[in-house]
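Thread title: Can someone regenerate the structure for this chain?

I was given the following input by a collaborator and told the matching structure tokens would be attached. They weren't. Posting the sequence so someone can regenerate them.
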Amino acid sequence: MLQTLGRFIHTRWSGDIDHRVLLQREMLIIGSLVNFVASFIGLIFLASKFSGYWAAFVHFLPLPYNVFLLICVFRHRESGAWMRLIAALWWLCMLIV
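Best answer:
Regenerated them for you:
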């Protein structure tokens, strides 16, 4: 399990994954799904009378993964300016929403 996680991180960090897959699948699809699920759970926490701190914690829990994906897109040798712009806008939207 730990080797699989290490391989997952290494392939994205080193740019061994295709830049289109990194942006479209990893960031736009999977990253957005993770963020929406975390936000939904945070809203459930608020509706269940949990502390607002717990709701905020759950909402911002995917933030390190989002920053990791953003840095991976910026580090990738084949990512152009438009990919970096899309990645930065996605990151801002996921931070706000």
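The mean pLDDT is 93.
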